[in-house]
Write a structure and sequence with these properties.
It is built from 9 helices and 14 strands. It is 30% helix and 30% strand.
């Protein structure tokens, strides 16, 4: 089949009707994005701006691929995901073509950046991100159960590697961060096109305001998430309470985001590391949206030898994260 037999276009109502069968053939009946099994919901999310879907169509009629920008929040950033191509139509660069179209669409709707989480039980999706000139910024160890990826014999939870690129590079990143993590931060932010400046920090104990923290739990993934919007004097307590609640619900991993433009983030990071959280990367954003430091804690065993990575820097990033995981484990 020639590449010219394929068209990549925005999702239509007729295309949406074919997505459930496409998803089931590629990912089985339990894919982690339920909207792709429901055409009306998929269309509704596209109409509201929560999703921006494109499809690959063969011979003018057959939908053989899908990919989307996911934008659940009104930030100028989106996650590229829900990418799938039927096995018999692979090797025609359809993922690359859909990603190129999503980049164009993202610029047209005013996005500042696009990120994507690639699996690490193979490297193919990583190579797609790298061909799109995205940069590795984080590795999320044990992010989801193997079953969520239709893996019957994989021996542990699946880790993801986060890639990021700006569609419009913002101003310099002025970050509050422990000195230990600064060299890697500079490498990652500069690779995305940002200049970096590190600032003095402030102890959370000197703050009078209460923390602004959001937390959520995904029972299917057994994954807890803590988002610190503004650290205050009670940040340690609030985070500990959220972690305890996640554990009682059976969490196997907890992720935390800390705002790098906040002076109290540096000492909060060090306190969380004393409590067993370890560095896993960065989420570049901008001074208004706030760049983020990513930490995590695993409640189950995980062998990093099962993490497959494609680039030299990704291997360096994994080695750094593994060393940090070992370092903080000695504090517990």
């Amino acid at each position: 089949m020639e590449t010219t037999e394929y068209e990549v276009r925005r999702l239509t109502a007729q295309d949406a009707a074919a997505i459930p069968e496409l998803t089931t053939r590629v990912n089985g009946p339990d894919y982690i994005h339920p909207e792709v099994y429901h055409p009306e919901r998929l269309l509704s999310m596209n109409q509201s701006g929560q999703l921006l879907s494109v499809v690959a169509v063969h011979a003018g009629t057959d939908v053989v691929g899908h990919a989307a920008l996911e934008r659940p929040d009104p930030e100028p950033y989106a996650e590229s995901g829900e990418a799938m191509v039927l096995l018999e139509h692979r090797h025609h660069h359809l993922l690359d073509r859909m990603k190129e179209m999503l980049d164009v669409q993202g610029r047209e709707i005013g996005l500042t950046g696009i990120f994507g989480n690639a699996v690490t039980h193979h490297i193919f999706s990583q190579l797609t991100e790298e061909r799109a000139k995205a940069q590795p910024t984080a590795i999320l160890l044990g992010s989801s159960p193997a079953a969520a990826h239709q893996l019957k014999d994989f021996p542990q939870r699946v880790s993801l590697i986060t890639y990021f690129k700006y569609t419009s590079v913002p101003g310099p990143a002025r970050l509050h961060l422990p000195r230990r993590h600064r060299p890697l931060a500079e490498r990652i932010f500069r690779a995305t096109g940002r200049q970096v400046e590190f600032l003095d920090s402030q102890s959370a104990a000197t703050l009078s305001a209460s923390s602004q923290i959001e937390s959520s739990y995904d029972s299917r993934l057994k994954q807890g998430n803590i988002k610190v919007l503004a650290p205050g004097h009670d940040a340690h307590l609030r985070i500990s309470e959220a972690e305890h609640a996640f554990r009682t619900q059976g969490a196997e991993v907890v992720f935390a985001e800390l705002p790098l433009q906040e002076p109290a983030t540096s000492p909060l990071c060090e306190e969380m590391e004393r409590r067993g959280f370890f560095f896993c990367g960065y989420a570049p954003r901008d001074p208004q949206t706030k760049d983020r430091l990513l930490l995590q804690k695993l409640m189950v065993p995980l062998d990093v030898a099962h993490v497959q990575l494609s680039s030299e820097f990704a291997h360096e990033l994994l080695a750094y994260i593994a060393a940090e995981r070992l370092r903080v484990s000695m504090n517990e």
